[in-house]
Amino acid sequence: MTCTTDFLVIGSGISGLSFALKAATLGSVTIITKKAKVDTATNLAQGGIAAVLSENDSFDLHIQDTLRSGDGLCDEKVVRMVVENGPARIDELIRQGISFTHDENNPAQLDLGREGGHSARRVAHAQDLTGREIEHGLLKKVAENPDITVLENHLAVDLLIASRAGLKSTDEQERCLGAFVLDREDNSITPYQAKVTVLCTGGVGKVYLYTTNPDIATGDGVAMAYRAGARIANLEFVQFHPTCLYHSKAKNFLISEAVRGEGARLVDERGRAFMKKYDPRGDLATRDTVARAIDTEMKASGDDCVFLDISHKPADFIKKRFPNIYRTCLSYGIDMTREPIPVVPAAHYMCGGVLTDTMGRTNIKHLYAFGETACTGLHGGNRLASNSLIEAVVFAHQAFEQCRRDWPELSRISYPDVPPWSTAKAEKIEECVLISHNWDQIRRLMWNYVGIVRSVKRLTMVKQRLDLIVSDVRQHFHDFLLTPDLIELHNIALIAQLIVQSALLRQESRGLHYVIDFPEKDDLNWKKNTVLQIGKP
Ligand code: SIN
Fold first, then answer.
1. CATH 1.20.58.100 for the 433-532 domain, yes or no
2. 358: which of 135, 294, 421, 481 is 20 to 30 A away, CA to CA?
3. Domain 243-347 belongs to what topology?
4. Which atom of ligand 1 is nearest to the CA of 255?
5. To test the ligand 1 pocket, which listed residue (254, 283, 325, 351) has its Cβ within 8 A of the most ligand atoms?
6. Cβ neighbours of residue 445 under 8 Å, at least 6 residues apart?
7. What spacing in Å lies between the alpha carbon of 37 and ligand 1's midpoint?
């Protein structure tokens, strides 16, 4: 059996849903999502969505802040394009029913938050639950649209590539025909054919032991794209969020950078503020600097965490501005209106990904990538806080515009016969420990040796260990009938290997990549992307 659709969207976060709503004006759309629709990084986003939305701000300021944060590696034309399109996309979200918080003193204005690296207030938010507001608002629109089908519990296994399906391409470029998709209900695998396939599967946080990301963040889109021959860039730039709640019972709970934007200070166990030692911007320095400063403080003191203190602000303000963070901390016995919150850095955002052009196109024909899965050139070596949601909606729009232009040609594409997924001699996996042991090893190796501060020696050691794990996992992938856990393990093993490969390539320190053997930035040799492509040196 084969399923067909005009647009296959893999992932149900802000970029996938925004694109789907637009693409449905051209043809049929199928969104597949590996768990429930709302299990996305978008849904967890607290801070908000950055754009120039006030008279005290300007496109130039937002562009300069983004470039400075990206540490010389942003693509300036992409930065300009995203920043200049930002306000229109926010208007569109509002027209789609998304409700952002308004300024109490001037209800006609949005209340704009501030975060690290921003020189003006420009972060639109829905209190501290911005992602949830956006995700639910867009899902509601999607549910009302008869041209969009959402399939939950459907996990893409691999892309369907023309040459591998025995089909000739009319030109040199490889062509994507859709994807092989596993239905979690019975683990059956079906080819889904599409005229356009979109990868927006989110990030890779689960490669690390501690992350702010949801469980779905296993780098599936990047891994599938790499295996299919797409160009993958800048995977060494893993952003660690400086302030994840440190509590034995809390799983991945983020304390938004917006808390520092409203005046919170990072302090050590004795209550001493330390950020000014590291950067004149203090607590509102960019994330690379803040996470590294916390790492240095913790290593020097031997303490398990540092603290974030906003207790000097009025309790009513804190409860109103950060209701979710306040309630969650309180549920762990921490009253943030009266005491500092224990925090540690955790893996948060992948700045690299599948390399795209300004329209979201990859080097594989009919394959697009956006959201955290993509490397568009916006973030460079360090993403400016709250620039990711705006990037997602701008690129979803760009991709739609491209598809609209190409539609006369795209709409004529027919669906060829493709071979089914081969299960050959595969057997049912009996011992789940084969999966859990490798999974745990990868995440610990990455956390201990490929974190905020790296060294060539440690990276080389991890590479050797990962090579063994990857070959073991590949063997399982071919020997056993596929299950969601095995597919995710296969993906995180590859992503870990690619992160280490990229980190070893970049022989300098820039943005989020700090390696003690090369502590300086080397513009002469390294003001460029690290690009990996299967079969290419
Ligand atoms: C936060 O609220 O601190 C996260 C925002 C982001 O990662 O852009």
1. yes
2. 135
3. Flavocytochrome C3; Chain A, domain 1 (3.90.700)
4. 3
5. 254
6. 462, 465, 466, 496
7. 21
